[in-house]
Amino acid sequence: MLLYMYTDTLEALGWESASLLYAAADKYELLILKDLCSSILKDNLCSSNACELLVFADTHHDHDMKKFAQEYILNHPNEVMSSNNWKDFVKHYGSLAAETLTLNFLCE
Question: CA of 108: how far to CAs of 36, 103, 104, in Å?
């Protein structure tokens, strides 16, 4: 975060680093850095981390990221919902899973 604040540059970040930096940027209201990290997280979205991103977005009240993750899940149901990640997600975040699945019916 300090590198970004002093140089206005961002090194290549992986999923874990981007999520940690996003959380710090959210806490300290560094909106541009938060948006950059959000883009990295969205660009690296896949079936194995879709549920994680959805929980992350919901926790940080990021409605755009949440919608992005929900749309990904609904557009890739076979890949996402056949995984153990989905089963754990439903077990621990049932209301968020229900909210996501309900969107599928509201869009039709």
Answer: 32, 9, 7
